[in-house]
Amino acid sequence: MAKRVDGNHAEIVEALRACGCVVQSLAAVGHGVPDLLVARNGRWYVLEVKDGSKPPSKRKLTPDEAAWHERFGRHAVVSIVETVEDALAAVQETSP
To answer: What is the model's pLDDT at position 1?
Structure first.
């Protein structure tokens, strides 16, 4: 089942693009797949967007999201972001 996007989704995508990232929204895929696939300077990032203005109970991973993170988290870094600042920090250059 495809999911709805969080209220801050578009703002985060816009900010990432403004700093030079290439962003593909995967939100419509559903089934626990994270919201954003981001490329920057030859590196890939996977971001799960949660709305930081919602209560903590509404920001938890769904069962499908938790299963996806469990399955793929051993092979890729997936960041959970709630703000533009979180998203920008997640795509900062790090040592390999």
So the answer is: 46
